[in-house]
Design brief:
alpha+beta, about 25% strand, binds FE2/S2 (inorganic) cluster, about 110 residues, 3 helices, globular, Ubiquitin-like (UB roll), 5-stranded mixed β-sheet
Length: about 110
């Protein structure tokens, strides 16, 4: 099991101790009722309602978005930052044990 920390948009820090490898970060957020992870498209990389900001120290291990995800993030450029990822596109693995992300505020998109 992998530990993941979500910071909800209101600043509440939520610790999830039991994320499973192979789950997406979005699935972990939804399963644990994390505020702000709406995932309207169900993980198809087409809604950006699973947007998170990766803590800088985790960015290298999480890695950057691919072209399709990057294009989707461009649609929410009002809130996107250089450490933005769509959590449905981040797969949990053992290297991410302790990962900390902040849920992005709702976008105008
Ligand atoms: S759930 Fe829609 S883009 Fe991630």
């Amino acid at each position: 099991m992998v530990k993941v920390i979500f910071v909800e948009p209101n600043g509440t820090e939520r610790h999830v101790p039991d994320a499973a490898e192979g789950q997406s970060l979005m699935e972990v957020g939804k399963a644990n009722g994390i505020e702000g992870i709406l995932a309207d498209c169900g993980g198809a990389c087409s809604c950006a309602t699973c947007h998170v900001f990766v803590d800088p120290e985790w960015w290298e291990r999480v890695g950057p978005p691919d072209d399709i995800e990057f294009a989707m993030l461009d649609m929410v450029a009002d809130v996107a930052q250089e450490l933005s990822r769509l959590s449905c596109q981040v797969k949990i693995n053992a290297q991410l044990d302790g990962l900390r992300v902040t849920v992005a505020p709702a976008s105008a998109f």
